[in-house]
Amino acid sequence: MKRFWLVVNRKKVEAPECAERVRQLLFSEGAEAVRASGSMECGMMDSKTDCVITLGGDGTMIRAARCIAGSGIPIVGINLGHMGYLTAVNREAEIPALIRALLQDRVQLEERMMLESRLIDETGAVTDTQLALNELVVSRRYSSGPIHFEVCVNGVFLNEYKADGIIISTPTGSTAYNLSAGGPIVDPVARMKILTPICPHALNRSSIVLRAEDRLEVVIPKETAGTPSVSFDGALVRELRPGSRVLIEESKSTTRLIRLEGGSFLSQLREKMSAL
């Protein structure tokens, strides 16, 4: 790797100084080009970029991953946030080792599955298509309280829920909102979908784990009151009209996540959990 793009979360006080240090380290170790931006818009990435480095938290990394999805460009994160499940390093002292590993190609690449969602209105027209690396959440937008919705798998009715919402998570997102809602932790390189209801009004509160290739639909009944919505990776939000559906499939695009050699999901999980 010789050409890098830094995505810097400038809301973090230490981010500009850290970005300058990373830039200097990259050039001192033999990088040919280093570009930096405070954000990333889809389509702005130079196709000659070998690697994207984010400086921020998991949110910064997820936003960048959504923008470069399908490009094949790997991404790695330097954590300036809190937990940093997705980032490769969490301490400033670890940065030089990461830079050397990147320039010497001594890293592991993990293919992380993503979700592709199509929003279908009450007439059957597709109104939007979005990707998610962590999860999508169907819930009520402007007020608290439960909503009614149905879930179908491969065209077959699965269940009707009365709940605050439902999380459809990837393995990567299993340690995020899914975990907080009582869902299972899954090895992030696995391929599956995890359905976790949020505060369901039912005796059975269990999550359901399905195959990655299963086709899911969340159906909003026509008589639904209030304003249901769907959010993607906790950021982008779209309102859902009564009678509309959210179709969720495994995306053909993946996120290529960089890990340092010798690290493992279980060791990282143990470290993160011990910090809680």
Layout: helices, strands, pairs:
Layout: E1 3-8, H1 15-28, E2 33-37, E3 51-56, H2 58-68, E4 75-79, H3 95-103, E5 107-120, E6 126-132, E7 135-140, E8 147-153, E9 156-163, E10 165-169, H4 177-180, E11 192-198, E12 208-211, E13 216-219, E14 228-232, E15 236-239, E16 245-260, H5 265-274
Parallel strand pairs: 1-2, 1-3, 3-4
Antiparallel strand pairs: 5-6, 5-16, 7-10, 7-14, 8-9, 8-13, 10-11, 11-12, 13-16, 14-15
Tally of contiguous helical segments = 5
Low-confidence stretches: none
Helix content: 10-25%
CATH class of the largest domain: Mainly Beta
Distance between the termini: 35 Å
Annotation, overall tally of beta strands: 16
CATH topology of the largest domain: Tumour Suppressor Smad4
Architecture (CATH level 2) name of the largest domain:
Sandwich
What number is the mean pLDDT? 90
The main pleated sheet reads as: 6 strands, antiparallel
The CATH fourth-level homologous superfamily of the largest domain: Probable inorganic polyphosphate/atp-NAD kinase, domain 2
Note the overall shape. elongated
Oligomer: single chain
Cα-atom radius of gyration: 20 Å
Q: Secondary-structure element sequence?
A: EHEEHEHEEEEEEHEEEEEEH
* Percent range for β-strand residues: 35-45%
**Cross-sheet strand order for the largest sheet:** 6-5-16-13-8-9
Number of domains: 2
Q: Which structural class do you get from the secondary structure elements?
A: alpha+beta
Provide a descriptive summary of the structure in words:
The chain is an alpha+beta fold and about 280 residues long. It has 2 domains: about 5-105, Probable inorganic polyphosphate/atp-NAD kinase, domain 1 (Rossmann fold, 3-Layer(aba) Sandwich); about 115-250, Probable inorganic polyphosphate/atp-NAD kinase, domain 2 (Tumour Suppressor Smad4, Sandwich), CATH 2.60.200. The chain has 5 helices and 16 strands. It is elongated and about 65 Å long. The protein starts with a strand and ends with a helix. The mean pLDDT is about 90.
